[in-house]
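ok so i was messing around last nite and threw this chain in just to see what happens. nothing serious, just curious
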Amino acid sequence: MWEGLKRLFGGTPEVTSSYAGLVADMHSHLLPGLDDGAATLEDSLQLLEVLQRLGFKKLCMTPHIMGDFYRNTPSGVREKLNLLKEATAARGLPLELSCAAEYYLDEWFLEKLEGPEDLLSFGGDRKFLLIETSYINEPAQLRQHVFAIQAAGYTPVLAHPERYTYFYGRLDELLSLRDVGVLFQINTNSISGYYSKGAREVAKQLIQRQAVEFLGTDTHSMRHTRVLERTLAEPLLAQALKLPLLNSTL
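result:
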C-alpha cells in the first residue's frame, strides 16, 4: 500500500501524528443521552479521553435538534454540558468543553429561529450555526433557510456537505452556497472513505478547492474514534490541515 501511495504522491506520503493542530473539534455527539451519540455519562467520558489523547484541546458538542425526533432544547443541552464538565473535572481531563447544536432544516426550524430563545451557536460573537439536511432529498427551501439564518444574525455552517447525495454530480451547485455566505464543515472520517466512496470524493474536491472552513469529527461512538486514528495516515488529511481552517480560532 505504501509503495502505491509513494508512486501516487511522489516520495514518502505525508501523514499526521495527531489532531493537535486543529485544537478544537466543533461537531460531535458526546453529551450523554440526548441523541444517537453517547448514551451515558461514562460513554461520554470514555470518548473524551480518546479525543484528548488524539490531540484535541477543545470540544464543542453539537447534539441533533429535530422537530419530530430529537426535541432537544437549549436549556436541556446546557444542563448536560454542565453535568459533563463536572465529571470531566473530576476525571482530571484537561479539556475545554462547550456546546452548540446541529439543527435539522425541517418544517419546525423556522419556528425555532423566529422564537424568543437564541439558538445554540458556536464561535462566540461570530454566532456560527451548524445546520444539516436530509442526506437524500434536497430541501425545497434551502436557500430561504440560509437567508433567514443570516437575517437572524447567524452565520450558517453546513455540516458534512460531502454526505448529501443529492449534490453528487452537482459540485458547482453545492459550491454556489458559499457564494451566499454558507461555510462548509467536512467530517474528518470522510477523508478515509468511512461513509462512502462518494463522500470521500466530494471531500477531496472541496479540500482541493479550499472550500472548507471547519473539520469536525462528528463522533458518536468508539467506532468513530477508531476511524479517526486510521485517518491520521491519510495524505489528504495532511492537505486539509494546511487550509486556513477556523477550528483553532474557536
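not much to say yet. The chain has nine helices and nine strands.
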